Amino acid sequence: MPEKLTPMIQSFILHFGEMGSRWGINRTVGQMYALLVLSKEPLCADDITEALGISRSNVSMGLKELISWELVKLQHRPGERKEFYSAPGDVWDIAKTLIEQRRKREIDPTLSTLRNLLIETPANDEEAYAQQRMREMHELIEMLTLWTQEIQRLDSAQLGKLLKLGNSIGKVLDMKDRLLGSSKKESTK
Amino acid sequence: MPEKLTPMIQSFILHFGEMGSRWGINRTVGQMYALLVLSKEPLCADDITEALGISRSNVSMGLKELISWELVKLQHRPGERKEFYSAPGDVWDIAKTLIEQRRKREIDPTLSTLRNLLIETPANDEEAYAQQRMREMHELIEMLTLWTQEIQRLDSAQLGKLLKLGNSIGKVLDMKDRLLGSSKKESTK
DNA sequence: CTGAATTTTCAGTATATTCTGAAATTACAG
DNA sequence: CTGTAATTTCAGAATATACTGAAAATTCAG
User: Fold this and answer.
1) What residue is closest to C6 (Cα–C1')?
2) Residue B187 domain boundaries
3) Does the beta carbon of B37 lie under 8 angstroms from any beta carbon of chain A?
4) Which residues make Cβ contacts (< 8 Å) with residue B42, sequence separation at least 6?
5) Which of B82, B87, B81 is nearest to B67 (CA)?
6) Which end of chain B is more exposed for a tag (fewer CB within 10 A), N or C?
7) For the segment A149-185, what is each residue's pLDDT rounded down to a tens digit?
8) Per-residue pLDDT reduced to its tens digit, B125-161
9) How close, in Å, is residue A82 to chain B by CA atoms?
10) Contact call for residues B56 and B46 (beta carbons, < 8 A)
11) Cβ separation of B19 and A106 shorter than 8 Å?
């Protein structure tokens, strides 16, 4: 469908369309975002319409969704009515936004549901067991959320350093282990 | 639709059905899994059919999917033709399987696509820029994958200790910072 | 203000996904 | 083996999601 996109850029867009559809976002919106991420200059709705070969109205709705995810920024040019859209220039910023939004939309409501079910008094053994599983689940999700929140506080530069250092994560966890006085004696591979 | 499920268990099942549908898994399969997770004893297909009020064939297909995700284990009882299904008893095992499977199904293919596009020689400035974004993206995904893989190596008990210690993750990251000689001077809140 | 350029909305259509019942297949107790 | 209890398959129906074009609403240059 796309018109003047190079094969390389097309492949990328198609792949992330498919990926998007595996997450909440739908295929077309995923493609729109992929296009925006790859383009240096902000694009207007018509640019997207043409590049992806989809209807103008579909683009309008897609952009609305991307904006609600805070993944896309709207810009105006002086003396121009037209609106231009762009994705953050920093990939880590994008990832942080994605994580944050999914937390708000999925994790938080889940934790809230679990808490509500946990304050009820179990009516029988079956419910007592069920509540135990829910409790474990709540604990786990809360902890993983904490971790990701800590990681999200790193800025792109810090993350870059971490990356360059290779997989020293093992070392950090070992350190953590020592801090915790872990019983299991297993080195990092 | 469900018959003899208590309201508490119903709520849980409904919520995780919705959640499942936001991920690759569909609503009904999500409900089936929620039911299995909450039940102490393994269930047979007919139990699920009855509890959720869906067709027997739907249950059969759903179970097939859950098995392909390795989220559910099949068991036989001596002298019984019937098959019984159960979810792991440990929530962390479940989470690890989910993470692992999503990595295989989504992350790995994405990294592979990115690598293929990165070995091409950019035909023009536009492609050169696009490749740069792809490179950053590849780096980031690879690093985050490494982190999660390290975390996945922890067993349930280690994770439990981590949890009980509260959010000491900040401290570890600070430690890491010092190790890296971070420039930014910001304490853990 | 005005009106042309632009964006948004939405009802209807197209597409994709999920679900079902009936038929085919499989597995195993006897 | 055989018969039956169980599971699986699959074509078609039901449902849900995505997409479009036309019409309405909005915005701002002049």
Assistant:
1) A82
2) 159-189
3) yes
4) B75, B84, B85, B86
5) B87
6) C
7) 888 888 888 777 666 665 555 566 566 666 555 444 4
8) 999 999 999 999 999 999 899 888 888 888 888 777 6
9) 23
10) yes
11) yes
